[in-house]
């Protein structure tokens, strides 16, 4: 299992371009069928632009079930609930 | 070339502010000197200040000299505390955060794309270090980022926009106001609709569409929407308040009221005001556990 510390791979959590860096890491893990624990700090505010370019894109390419099968979250409950809500809404809006 | 004096409208109705701003801009090409007269005003709302800052910036960009007059002692002290008047002085550094002389407000700041992340994080730390030590302020920083990204992705605004973030201690409300003089949200929506062969919508309908889940005007190829709908969801979850004024649309969502109406006036830009009651914020949580999605 691979622990990915978000702070170590992106310079910000606002932009599409930084979201792509996270996407590349997650995409590579999926292609290797490797489980990932995504570690997000309690003060990191993830914009929708950043999430759309990273996790949103993963969801569109591979689907929610694949995402859930390989990825876990490490951090506070508050952050987990926020990210879960984003995933739910993104799936409703963009994944048929 | 002449002097253009901007007298603050006596009423604090949005329509009067917009009409005053529009009238001022009509004269911009003939103006060499722009004076803001605060009259007898003792207090100005932050949403009025950020829209005034955008107006001043327009004249500044047109090489007008900027000066200020009027206002009570209280008002002028407040304006000094937020560095409002200094902003257009030639030696003022816009790329640095300026120190606030009061710990309830972050001074006026012109939005800069490279600094989106750092401003939002700065706001989070600023208020956690003062009044809100035990509170989870991610809703503040993430909502700031959503609106900043909206300005840069969709507004086509040449003067970027301005923000003021403030904590109202008596009301226990954390608030930010952001204004830009871009094309406006309804215009951005209708440009996209026309591009894909759909008819334009009335202003209020276009704004409602922009806020709806998953809608994107695709101003940038990677856009997938979610920004304004995330903002609204976040505010609703906290029983906060969201006001958006853009072009000829006025949107309000708070605990007692939700509406989106077409207006008689036309605002060339967007003004967004968010208010978050701090009692509804979660406590700051530094714990770490592993969760399954």
Describe this structure in words.
The complex is a heterodimer of chains A (96) and B (293). Chain A is of the alpha/beta class and 96 residues long. Chain A is built from five helices and three strands, in the order E-H-H-E-H-H-E-H. Chain A has a three-stranded parallel sheet with strand order 1-2-3. In chain A, helix 2 (16-31) runs parallel beside helix 3 (48-62) and helix 3 (48-62) crosses helix 4 (64-70). Chain B is α/β, with parallel strands linked by helices and 293 residues long. Chain B has one domain (2-280): Heat Shock Protein 90, CATH 3.30.565. Chain B is 34% helix and 26% strand. Chain B has helices at residues 14-26, 46-61, 73-81, 116-128, 138-154, 185-195, 203-211, 227-237; strands at 2-7, 31-37, 65-69, 105-110, 162-168, 173-180, 241-253, 258-277, 289-292. Chain B is globular, with a radius of gyration of 19 Å. The mean pLDDT of chain B is 90. The interface between A and B is large, with 42 and 39 residues. Strand 3 of chain A pairs antiparallel with strand 9 (289-292) of chain B.
Q: Examine the secondary-structure arrangement and name the CATH architecture of chain B.
A: 2-Layer Sandwich
Task: Identify the biggest protein-protein contact and residues per side.
Answer: A-B, 42 and 39 residues
Fill in the CATH topology of chain B: Heat Shock Protein 90
Average pLDDT of chain A, rounded to a whole number, is: 93
Share in helix of chain A: 55-70%
Radius of gyration computed on alpha carbons of chain B: 19 Å
Give the topology, please.
The complex is a heterodimer of chains A (96) and B (293).
Chain A: E1 2-5, H1 6-9, H2 16-31, E2 36-39, H3 48-62, H4 64-70, E3 71-75, H5 77-94
Parallel strand pairs in A: 1-2, 2-3
Helix pairs in contact in A: 2-3, 3-4, 3-5
Chain B: E1 2-7, H1 14-26, E2 31-37, H2 46-61, E3 65-69, H3 73-81, E4 105-110, H4 116-128, H5 138-154, E5 162-168, E6 173-180, H6 185-195, H7 203-211, H8 227-237, E7 241-253, E8 258-277, E9 289-292
Parallel strand pairs in B: 1-2, 2-3
Antiparallel strand pairs in B: 4-5, 5-6, 6-8, 7-8
Helix pairs in contact in B: 1-2, 4-5, 5-8, 6-7
């Amino acid at each position: 299992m691979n622990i990915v510390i978000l702070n170590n791979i992106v310079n910000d959590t606002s932009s599409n371009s930084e979201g792509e860096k996270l996407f590349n890491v997650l995409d590579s893990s999926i292609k290797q069928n490797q489980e990932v624990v995504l570690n997000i700090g309690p003060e990191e505010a993830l914009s929708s632009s950043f999430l759309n370019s990273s996790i949103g894109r993963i969801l569109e390419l591979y689907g929610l079930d694949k995402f859930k099968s390989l990825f876990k979250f490490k951090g506070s409950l508050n952050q987990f609930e926020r990210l879960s809500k984003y995933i739910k809404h993104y799936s409703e809006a963009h994944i048929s | 070339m002449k002097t253009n004096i901007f007298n603050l409208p006596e009423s604090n109705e949005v329509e009067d502010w917009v009409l005053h701003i529009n009238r001022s801009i009509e004269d911009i090409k003939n103006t060499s000197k722009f004076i803001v007269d605060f009259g007898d005003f003792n207090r100005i709302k932050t949403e009025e200040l950020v829209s005034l800052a955008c107006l001043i910036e327009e004249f500044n960009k047109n090489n007008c000299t900027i000066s200020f007059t009027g206002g009570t002692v209280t008002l002028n002290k407040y304006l000094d505390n937020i560095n409002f008047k200094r902003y257009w002085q030639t030696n003022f550094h816009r790329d640095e955060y300026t120190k606030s002389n009061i710990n309830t407000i972050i001074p006026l700041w012109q939005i800069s794309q490279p600094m989106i992340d750092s401003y939002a994080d700065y706001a989070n730390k600023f208020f956690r270090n003062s009044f809100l030590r035990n509170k989870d302020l991610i809703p503040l920083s993430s909502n700031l980022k959503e609106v900043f990204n909206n300005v840069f992705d969709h507004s086509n605004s040449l003067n970027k926009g301005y923000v003021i973030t403030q904590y109202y201690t008596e009301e226990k409300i954390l608030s930010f106001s952001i204004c830009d003089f871009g094309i406006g949200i309804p215009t951005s929506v209708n440009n996209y609709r026309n591009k894909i062969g759909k008819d334009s919508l009335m202003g209020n309908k276009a704004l409602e569409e922009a806020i709806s889940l998953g809608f994107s005007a695709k101003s940038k190829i990677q856009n997938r929407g979610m920004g304004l709908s995330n903002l609204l969801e976040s505010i609703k979850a906290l029983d906060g308040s969201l006001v958006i004024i853009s072009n000829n649309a006025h949107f309000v969502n708070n605990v007692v009221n939700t509406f989106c109406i077409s207006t008689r006036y036309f605002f060339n830009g967007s003004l967004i005001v968010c208010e978050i009651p701090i009692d509804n914020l979660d406590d700051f949580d530094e714990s770490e556990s592993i969760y399954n999605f």
